[in-house]
Write a structure and sequence with these properties.
Length: 341
């Protein structure tokens, strides 16, 4: 039970907290990964922790189908499909997006898990939000007419319920930090729809955890600090929490968003190759690659103290590597490793 809410326990937690020996040596910091990419359904990732709460709520409401939204390559959608499959529910994803020309990466995994994907085209007349709202209404009506009870999960699972997944993760990480006696830990995490960051931050300030948190934005936001403070206020009101947070209390870095969501970026790919070559661990080009690129740039600019304990939460997303627009760029750069003899 966390803040009065219960969940279904289907994850192989605690996920490992691993020291990256080669990177630590190279950067002169104590660099750790919290391996949430290793969570155990649908090829893993951060959204599973949120889904432990959503599936409990959905089953209590006698739902027979999970419906969520995102981009065509949504990791959250893929993991929603996985959890739906595990609990015998149907699943569907709605994306306002173009057909990418092939069923690859997350779309392929969605199909394997029997998830229906609805792609909605821009029509030049309505906003993306209007199109999405209409599609949610239409798809829900279609399935409910066919006898299903649809449970809707918002974008990225980032609402007041989803936040609890990373509240739990912060407590789990705190325990590991204590056991491993890591001094002054500085946790770095990707910020997308923000539920992951907010869960960690909410636990840190309300449970008085001894860790510093920095969120790395991976796309341009109008006012990330303000949206974060607004989100926290909703969480605080829902669970009657005591700690207050103002926008200026939140350590959110938007310097490494690379200008667009899910865009192919050379330096992000370089960060992915660096991690792959040094540690044999794979990052993704949309989220964790951008966060690790930020960490590399910050380390280069002496942002971290020598020997500082830096923990990056590896939130998964690896199927993103196989999307056409990322894969083709990497194929060109990595051709040098292909030898035909
Ligand atoms: C792999 C990965 N990392 C990080 C995030 C960001 O998490 P959040 O949306 O909770 O901010 C996402 C969101 O989709 C993700 O798929």
């Amino acid at each position: 039970m966390t803040l009065g809410r219960d969940k279904l326990h289907f994850l192989n937690t605690p996920t490992p907290l691993e020291r990256m020996n080669n990177i630590s040596e190279d950067l002169g910091i104590e660099f750790y990964l919290k391996r949430d990419d290793l969570t155990n359904y649908g090829t893993g990732g951060n959204k599973l922790r949120k889904l432990e709460y959503f599936i409990k709520d959905a089953l209590e409401q006698k739902a027979t189908m999970l419906l969520t939204i995102g981009g065509a390559q949504t990791n959250h959608g893929r993991l929603t499909a996985a959890v739906a499959a595990k609990y015998g529910l149907k699943s569907a994803i709605i994306a306002v997006d173009e057909y990418p020309g092939e069923i690859s990466a997350n779309l392929l995994l969605d199909g394997i898990m029997g998830c229906h994907v609805y792609l909605v085209r821009q029509d030049g007349e309505h906003t993306e939000i209007e199109l999405m709202k209409q599609a949610i209404h239409d798809v829900t009506e279609r399935w409910e007419h066919a006898g299903e009870k649809v449970y809707f999960i918002p974008m990225g699972g980032s609402n007041e319920l989803g936040v609890l997944g990373y509240y739990d993760c912060a407590l789990e990480l705190d325990q590991q930090i204590r056991e491993m006696k890591l001094p002054d830990p500085h946790v770095m995490v990707t910020v997308g729809s923000m539920g992951t960051y907010m869960g960690l931050e909410t636990a840190i300030v309300n449970e008085h955890l001894d860790m510093r948190l920095t969120g790395i934005g991976i796309m341009p936001y109008t006012d990330l600090r303000k949206s974060a403070a607004d989100y926290y206020r909703r969480v605080k009101d829902t669970y009657h929490l005591s700690a207050d947070l103002k926008p200026e209390d939140l350590d959110l870095n938007t310097d490494y968003d690379c200008g667009e969501y899910n865009n192919p970026v050379h330096e992000v790919r370089e960060a992915i190759y660096y991690m792959g070559k040094h540690e044999g661990i794979i990052l993704d080009p949309c989220y964790t690659g951008k966060t690790f690129n930020a960490i590399l740039q910050l380390a280069k600019n002496d942002y971290f103290r020598p020997g500082e304990t830096v923990i990056m939460i590896h939130t998964g997303g690896i199927p993103g590597i196989y999307t056409k627009h990322h894969r083709t760029e990497m194929e060109l750069e990595l051709m040098k490793y292909m030898h035909i003899i």
